[in-house]
Amino acid sequence: MDTKEIAYKYAIKNAYEHEGKADIGAVVGKVKAVLPDIDLKTAMPEIKNAVSLVNSFGIDEIKKEFEQFNAEGFELKPREQREGLAELDWVREGMQVVTRYAPNPNGPFHLGNARAAITSHEYARRHNGRFLLRFDDTDPKVKKPIENAEQIFKEDLTWLNCKIDETYFASDRIEIYYNKIEELLQAENAYVCTCKVEEWREKVKKKEPCVCRDLDVKEHLQRFMKMKNHELKEGEAIVRIKTDLKHKDPSVRDWWLCRVIDNPKHPRAGTKYQVWPSYNLASAVDDHLLGVTLIIRGQEHEQNETKQRFLYKYFDWEYPHTIYFGRIAIEGSVLSTSKIKKGIEEGIYIGWDDPRLGTIRALRRRGFTPEALTKAIINLGTNANDAKILWSTLAALNKDVIAENAEKLTFMKEPLKLSADLVPKTNVEIDGRIYELNQGVQEFFVDKGIISKYKAGQIVRMRNAYNVRIKTISDYEVTAEYAGDIKIKEVIPWLLDGSDIELMMPDAKKIIGLCDSEILNKKVNDHIYFDRFGFVRVDSLEGKRPVVWFTHN
Prior knowledge:
Helix 1 crosses helix 4 (59-72) and helix 2 packs across helix 3. Helices cover 33% and strands 23% of the residues. By secondary structure, it is of the alpha/beta class. A hairpin with a 5-residue loop joins strand 22 and strand 23. The chain starts with a helix and ends with a strand.
């Protein structure tokens, strides 16, 4: 059972024991006991909805539900944690598993959306199946698709090593949905409602039909034709499927199939259609017609299965197998597409690949690898609990991939000149490169943040070279003199010269620092390890200075 089901079950029990009203605190305590690792902050909306739903019931309905649950037994055991993808016990030898990733392309996808894509692709490949990309682009008004959606999504999916077998756009299939709607109207399983929304809601709340529901088929077909011809405008008519008006969930009662949109401006369909299908209609029809056998999606869609099963029953279709997982959060990152889009419009973010975001494009630009992200998702399995991915977890997985081939270079956030007197001439090897040091006076660049930890008179060792005694330290330079060659712990990294670079940090702040000039021999997308600082990815070698993005420690 998932969070919503557990909350509903114990809300019924609590309401039965307390004269028809469930106490949210008591329900939260039960949910926490059953799901000890649950993130209550993200689970609270579902718990509140369950309690609110139960508190809207009459005492007879609560008693009926309680008796059913009581017969089954109320006590639930804490869910066992499991890492990795569960086996599909319904798959038989030779069976082909067909999965789909069906994003609303109103913005590039993030790591939370990627869970459905990566998991769906993995199951399809495990069972010699097909992985479909289907754009759910049927909202030309509120969540309008972005331009070049196909290119952007395919680029991200290809980078994630998700091989797409077939691609579809719901907006290309409008006529198919129209035909299915007409079939439902002909069979008296749907109706065109012209009631005012407020009036219809009042009727449904009372579990009563509106005046349109039982009109004859001819009238409904004529109304639907007027909708398509735009004789009926936005808000004047809506097609609804006939479900159970007494269903305990009011949103399931006669949910809408399609509606009129005035002046649609769709990047793919243009202004060709004024009647647009609901997500539940388009998704349900396509899952059947495209042969999908396994749907993997977030728990928030569980209610949609309840709605869609009415449609499948009318068409005598078999509903696909389903897996529901919890939401993913990345600590400190923004995942909401609407918030990101607003932030970009307001100039808060530099784009969909801003380092503060959890989009795939941002993670890729920072230097995270598809192997690391895929493993992080697969390790979560298909657990119904919400999960938070820590940067330390992503960093550890990513380091396993990039560390071996990442060349180590010296980087200084605040380079400071250090002049050493009375030093001997010597050759020094650092990370496979030879440096010739002068006799008498040798000038180095050192990092201000490191050298400032020491005081005049202290002895430090110039990395792989010799020791010097600090004479003076200021904000502008350090002076020192030779102090022998006995190895000591206080080692100072240094550069003889270098290249100015621009470093983009995870908080979108930029650092102008000094790096080993070897960086000029690198290529874009190379991974580098800055000694004592962390891993970075080469973003650009053009312009007045190289640009790198910080990946992780």
